[in-house]
Amino acid sequence: MRPIARMLDDRFRVLNIDLPGHGRTPPPPTPIGVEECAQLVSDVIRTESPNGVTIVGHSNGGRIALFMASDDRFARLINRLVLISPSGIRPQRGLKVRLKSLVASFLKAPFMVLPTNVRMKGLDWLRDSIVWRMLGSSDYRALSGVMRETFVRTVNFFVDDRLSRINVPTLIFWGERDTAVGSRQIEKLAAAIPDSGVVPLKGAGHYGYLDDPATVKAGTRHFIEQGSAS
After folding, report:
1. Could you tell me the pTM of the whole model?
2. Domain ranges of the chain
3. 131-189 pLDDT, tens per residue?
4. According to CATH, what is the number of the domain 2-90+158-229?
């Protein structure tokens, strides 16, 4: 997210937050999910800008931002949302993904009938096995320990049923070659949030702010300045 911060810090005050296990922030002592991340972000906002902020979130950062804007505990801290290929909208799963999910459930089933302590140790062993790693994504395989469980909790958290609660202006950038977040997810997102608009980034992928920084910079600046002027 540093490139986005550099796009904006000559005109706006920017807080670039490293969540636990990211950047220079150490991993959490125990696995966390979207709600815990939202609480951490809100603590920073309450301290640094209690009158509210524009949240700029890419991918999982967008998922957290959507959750915050749809939750009464955090919504008043958010004035506007800028989302770049945000995650959190349930995708249509293809046959390959459904098969992997079925195999994973089959592998976990024997452990689920065991006492809690034994079950947890067994599942830890399973998640470290070669077979289980083959079922996971490259992001999953790159992680270990507490961050692997944090990743699982996060990517399986969806906000579809919460989107209609969001009542702040929302700008969505989406790369037309994005293979991580599909067009149907973006269409569903834009349709559900009353005051929202989508800016397609031609030729861009999931990291649209790197592939088309000029459009993201110009659009974000204009959007934030609109809010300041109103």
Report:
1. 0.80
2. 2-90+158-229, 95-155
3. 656 655 556 566 667 888 888 889 889 999 999 999 999 999 999 999 999 999 999 99
4. 3.40.50.1820
